[in-house]
Amino acid sequence: MLSRLLVFVYLLVSLSSLAQPQLALLKKDRIITRFEEGEQIRFKRKGDDGYSLALIQGIHPGFIIVANDTVFTYDIEVVDVRKKKLTSFKVSSIGKGLMIAGAGLFLVDFFNTTVIINSDYELKNSAWRGSAVLLGLGTFMQFVNNDFFRQYRHRKIATLNFRPS
Q: How far, in Å, CA of 13 to CA of 8, rounded?
């Protein structure tokens, strides 16, 4: 009786541990993020002007099924990953921090001169140059952010752990 119970438990565990199919975004063979069935994906096809927002209904080798439409992975040009957790660092969040630091440097210098020292504010070279560099670098990083995954030579979209037929 105990051996039958152990065999039954073993079968349940092995059947429940089957791999779930995933759509992986790869950069130099490293996984950046994954999408699973039932998740929303916002993507742009090659040749299209706008983005499509759809629910992934099925993931198969080489293509995904979204809203009763088949989309091949090689046909996807850009994937929006703003709402996904990425394994790489976020350029846009660092840019926001640099912009805040630049504005904060100017405000702290202004506050220190007018309130603490109690004198008229005079723009100093070190303060405005530091603020300008931080604001400029932060703005540049905002424009060069990595919120969109584009397919090219070392960046690919792959399907992983698909079910055996």
A: 9
Tell whether 22 is covered by a domain: yes
What gap in Å lies between CA 148 and CA 103, rounded to an integer?
Answer: 27
Rounded to whole angstroms, how far apart are CA atoms 67 and 117? 65
Cα separation, 146 vs 143, whole angstroms: 9
- The answer to whether residues 98 and 141 touch, using CB atoms and an 8 Å cutoff, is yes
What are 44-88's pLDDT values in tens digits?
Answer: 999 999 999 999 999 999 999 998 899 999 999 999 988 877 766
Co-location of 112 and 69 in the same domain: no
What radius of gyration do the chain's Cα atoms show? 25
Please check whether residue 157 is in contact with residue 23, taking contact to mean a CB–CB distance below 8 angstroms.
yes
State which residues form the domain around 122: 91-143
* HEC string for 78-146: EEECCCCCCCCCCHHHHHHHHHHHHHHHHHHHHHHHHHHCCCCCCCCHHHHHHHHHHHHHHHHHHHCCC
How many domains, the chain? 2
Over residues 78-103, the pLDDT tens digits come to 999 888 777 666 777 788 889 999 99
